[in-house]
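[job 0412] stage=complex_fold ligand=fe (ii) ion status=START
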Amino acid sequence: MTSQQAKAAEFHACDKVYASEREALMATLDSISAVESCAGGAFATWITQCKDPTLRGALKIIAEREAYHGRALGRRLAELGGQPRHVLTPFERDLEAYLSNPDVSDADKVERLHELVPDPAHVVSFVLDIVDAIKEDTETREILRLYQQDEVSSATWLCNYRNQLHTGSRVAAE
Ligand SMILES: [Fe+2]
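[job 0412] stage=complex_fold status=DONE, emitting structure tokens
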């Protein structure tokens, strides 16, 4: 491959340059699938501790979404010939432990998620940057697009619930 061809094959997204679109998508699928599977486990554990049936109902859907994102993106990674390699960062492990911790209240968990994503419309917005840059792999593009839409839905619900606790229009269950 000439340097000109190599340059043409480059994939630019999220202020990063990858050697190719495939390489960029495999790295993206790898990290997201690992984080989502981990979050699916954390939310599932939280359900067993959750004191408010309203919140618990939403968590049941959110936990399933996280788990199936992990599966669907992991499957696409395998179809592209990739292997799961992502090692959870200390930040990711810490968040999983926090959400799974029976000694942390529902309100504190919701608040922590709100601090991480104060504007739910922008949750995982980096994925849109990748979606927009994809030229060839439209299959992965649509998987990522719908994944991002799910995340906005989950984050919006949690943000609304948190705001109700914050304004006193909802009281945290004991
Ligand atoms: Fe997620």
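Residues 10-167 form a domain with the Ferritin fold (CATH 1.20.1260.10).
[job 0412] exit 0
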